[in-house]
Backbone:
């Protein structure tokens, strides 16, 4: 018996030594699938952002799985609705990391909900990535430290605010501007701050700065006040819910000045709320334009229309690129664990997407161009790319 035990022990040691001499550990696991979490706003106040993002993600994953997945393994999406609530996003993020054992998480869409999931991502060493969390302190905290496990593929609020101020000066030769901001969100405050700073640095004057809070519906008092002033443009840093109503009421009061905004304008609901007649001379910064003739963009549009029977919006495109960005990162990773995937994503160079090509910088942000979309009767009619940030 003792002799047999020694022989078995020697055999086990030999196998272990052979495995140890074979180089790096294999990056595949026994499972035939790779789990990626989906933590998005599928209901609640900003559901259109989450719904559109997930449609793009699901199209991309469908295509990637048809092409062989990741090293022959199918991508399995574990999808949850955070109901547009940061607290729910936090709970679901933790569940995806600790119970569902995903290797990465896509979402949430909004900066507040995305930031709420960062502490658990850092603690559990699971990368999270958003296509649309634009707040400046998403990937770098207020102390200036990089949140290593937080990534995004969109540009920041500071860049959007700066770009739209410069657009106002160059496009309209604007000297005077009005700002009507959502003071209840970091998004609105960040955009307004950077627009004002840049506009004034270029010699412009902010003749009025008005504010509202999320879910307000009557803006006539604000608009009556600004009508008494002279201005060249209005900048509305906020989401489509309120922006659509502001635009409608402004045009109803006879205010004809160009109205500028940011990516929060990009929703079909903007047209529903404002009406086509009001949506002229409207310009907003965005990540994507369907007017782009690039083959990659046009192929995406055709594939999206074939699956969903309608034109894609920017959040569809961002979701599509986000899924491909993360899957490419997983495919390059040395092992199927959060730390390896984080290192791979952080080293991304030359990613080519429908929302632009980019490298990931030292702060886990993309270096990419911004697009300004112009509306005529509520329909995108012009598209202009501005320089990379």
Residues:
């Amino acid at each position: 018996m003792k002799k047999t035990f020694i022989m078995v022990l020697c055999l086990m040691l030999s196998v272990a030594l052979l495995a140890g001499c074979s180089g790096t550990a294999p990056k595949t696991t026994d499972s035939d699938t790779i789990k990626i979490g989906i933590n998005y706003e599928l209901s609640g106040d900003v559901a259109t952002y989450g719904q559109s993002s997930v449609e793009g993600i699901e199209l991309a994953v469908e295509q990637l799985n048809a092409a062989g997945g990741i090293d022959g393994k199918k991508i399995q999406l574990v999808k949850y609705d955070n109901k547009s609530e940061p607290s729910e996003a936090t709970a679901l993020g933790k569940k995806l990391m600790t119970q569902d054992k995903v290797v990465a998480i896509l979402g949430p869409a909004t900066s507040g909900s995305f930031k709420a999931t960062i502490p658990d991502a850092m603690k559990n060493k699971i990368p999270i990535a958003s296509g649309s969390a634009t707040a400046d302190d998403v990937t770098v905290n207020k102390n200036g430290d990089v949140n290593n496990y937080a990534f995004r593929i969109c540009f920041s609020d500071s860049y959007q605010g700066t770009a739209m101020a410069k657009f106002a000066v160059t496009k309209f030769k604007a000297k005077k501007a009005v700002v009507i901001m959502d003071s209840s969100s970091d998004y609105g405050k960040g955009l307004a701050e950077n627009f004002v700073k840049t506009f004034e640095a270029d010699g412009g004057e902010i003749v009025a700065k008005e504010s509202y809070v999320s879910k307000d519906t009557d803006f006539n008092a604000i608009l009556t006040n600004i009508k008494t002033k002279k201005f060249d443009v209005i900048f509305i840093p906020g989401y489509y819910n309120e922006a659509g109503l502001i635009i409608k009421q402004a045009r109803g009061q006879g205010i004809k000045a160009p109205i500028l905004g940011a990516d929060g304008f990009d929703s079909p609901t903007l047209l529903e709320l404002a009406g086509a007649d009001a949506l002229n001379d409207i310009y907003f910064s965005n990540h994507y334009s369907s007017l782009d003739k690039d083959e990659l963009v046009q192929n995406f549009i055709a594939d999206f229309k074939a699956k969903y029977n309608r034109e894609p919006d920017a959040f569809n495109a961002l979701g599509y690129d986000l899924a491909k960005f993360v899957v490419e990162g997983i495919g390059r990773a040395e092992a199927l664990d959060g730390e390896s995937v984080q290192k791979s994503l952080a080293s991304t160079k030359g990613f080519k997407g429908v929302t632009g090509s980019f490298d990931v910088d030292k702060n886990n942000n993309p270096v990419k161009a911004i697009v300004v979309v112009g509306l005529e009767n509520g329909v995108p009619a012009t598209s202009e790319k501005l320089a990379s940030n």
Summary: The longest strand covers residues 33-40.
